[in-house]
C-alpha cells in the first residue's frame, strides 16, 4: 500500500480535529501512553474485579446456606448407627456376585504343561 489508510485532512479540518476531545486525548496518549491509556485500563480492571468479588461472595454464601450444620447429638447418632463393613461382602457387591454365587472364591486357572505361570 503506497499511501496509508489514514484519510487526508485539510488544515482547517486538522485544527478542528485537534481541538476536539478525541484529538486532544490522542495527543496526550502519544506523549505519555501509560499515564493516559495503560493506567486507566488497569484501574478499570481492578475496579471490575472488586465489584465482581461481591457477586462471587454472594454465590458462595448461598451455597453455604444449603449446607446444614449438625449438632453434637446428630453427629454421634450417625457414627453409632453405622453398619459393620466386611471387605469381602463389599467386593462381591461391586462385582454383582453376592446373590448369584454365595460360595464363590477366586481360583487360579490350571496351566498346560510347559506353559508359563507368569509369576515374577
From TrEMBL:
Q: Which PANTHER family match?
A: CYTOCHROME C OXIDASE ASSEMBLY PROTEIN COX16 HOMOLOG, MITOCHONDRIAL (PTHR17130:SF14), MITOCHONDRIAL OUTER MEMBRANE PROTEIN 25 (PTHR17130)
Q: How does it sit in the membrane?
A: Single-pass membrane protein
Mind listing the GO biological process terms from this record?
mitochondrial respiratory chain complex IV assembly
Per the record, its GO cellular-component terms are:
mitochondrial inner membrane
Q: Record keywords: Transmembrane included?
A: yes
Is Hydrolase given among the entry's keywords? no
Which keywords does this Swiss-Prot/TrEMBL entry list?
Answer: Membrane, Mitochondrion, Mitochondrion inner membrane, Transmembrane, Transmembrane helix
Top-rank taxon of the source lineage equals Eukaryota
* Ranges annotated as spanning the membrane: 34-52
Q: Tell me which family the UniProt entry assigns to this protein.
A: Belongs to the COX16 family.
Protein name from the UniProt record: Cytochrome c oxidase assembly protein COX16, mitochondrial
Q: Where in the cell is it found?
A: Mitochondrion inner membrane
Function of this protein? Required for the assembly of the mitochondrial respiratory chain complex IV (CIV), also known as cytochrome c oxidase. May participate in merging the COX1 and COX2 assembly lines.
